[in-house]
Amino acid sequence: MLTTDHHIALQQAADLLGERRAAEAMMAVEVLAARRPHDGATLALRARVLEAIAAIEPAVMSLELAAALSPEHPQAQLDLGHIYTERDRPSDAERCFKRALTLTGFAERRAEEARFLADPVAAIGARGMAAIREIGRRLDLDYCGVDFSVLPDGRLLIFEANATMLAHAEDPQGPFA
Q1: 2 pLDDT exceeds 60?
Q2: CB 90 within 8 A of CB 149
Q3: Based on the domain organization, do 95 and 63 belong to the same domain?
Q4: Separation of alpha carbons 119 and 153, rounded Å
Q5: Cβ atoms of residues 49 and 58 within 8 Å
Q6: What CATH number is given to the structural domain containing 47?
Q7: 3-class secondary structure for 73-139?
Q8: Is residue 173 part of a domain?
Q9: Mean pLDDT, to the nearest integer, of 144-165?
Q10: 111 or 14, greater pLDDT
Q11: CA–CA distance, 6 with 115 (Å, rounded to integer)
Q12: Cα separations (Å) of 11 from 16, 17, 42, 54, 145?
C-alpha cells in the first residue's frame, strides 16, 4: 500500500516525465525506488522514465519486475506489452495484453463501456451526447473517434477527437465482439 507522501512523490515524478524533464524524473524515481525497491507502481514509473531516455533493456527489466511484484497492476502489463511489441516479441506482448484485460481495473472499464454501448445518453447524459454530436458536426468527417472522460459536473473532458484514433482489436470471444 502506498502512503500519501509516496503517492504524491510518484505523481510529481510522473509530471516531470510528462513535461519531458526525463533526467529530473529519473533522479526522483531512483530516490523512490531506493526507498521502496519492491513497489510495483514505482518500478513501472521507473520503466517509463528509462524508456523515455532510450534505456530499453533496463526498462524491460523494471517492467518485468513490476509485473511480477504487482500482478494486479494493469498499467505495468500494458506497458510491458507495448515494449514487447516494439522489441518484436509478439507472443510475450499478447500474454501481457490479455493479462491486463483480465485485471479488476479493466473489468470496471469494460463495465463502463458496456453501459455506454447499451445506453449512451444514460451513461454520459444528454449534455454529454450533445457535446459529442457537436464535435462530430465540427469535424465534418464520415467517421471519427473521440476519447473523453465525464467530469463530476457532467461536462466532458476531451482528450482527442480525430479520424486516426487507435482502436484495439476485440477478442472474437470478448464481451464486445
Answers
A1: no
A2: no
A3: yes
A4: 19
A5: no
A6: 1.25.40.10
A7: CHHHHHHHHHHHHHCCCHHHHHHHHHHHHHCHHHHHHHHHHHHHHHCHHHHHHHHHHHHHHHHHHHH
A8: no
A9: 85
A10: 14
A11: 34
A12: 9, 10, 10, 21, 29
How many Å apart are CA 113 and CA 138, to the nearest integer? 25
Q: Tell which of 105, 135, 154 closes a domain.
A: 105
A 10 A CB-CB count for 8 gives 11
Calculate ∠ Cα 89-94-95, nearest 5°: 100
- pLDDT classification of 115: cutoffs 50, 70, 90: confident
Q: CA-CA distance, 83 to 175, in Å (whole number)?
A: 26
Percent share of the chain, pLDDT over 90: 19
Full-model pTM: 0.54
Does some domain include residue 172?
no
pLDDT 10s digits, 9-22: 888 988 898 898 99
Contact call for residues 159 and 148 (beta carbons, < 8 A): yes
CA distance 167 to 164: 9
User: For the chain, what is the radius of gyration of the CA atoms?
Assistant: 19
* pLDDT, greater one: 82 or 2: 82
Q: Is residue 85 within 8 Å of residue 93, measured between CB atoms?
A: yes
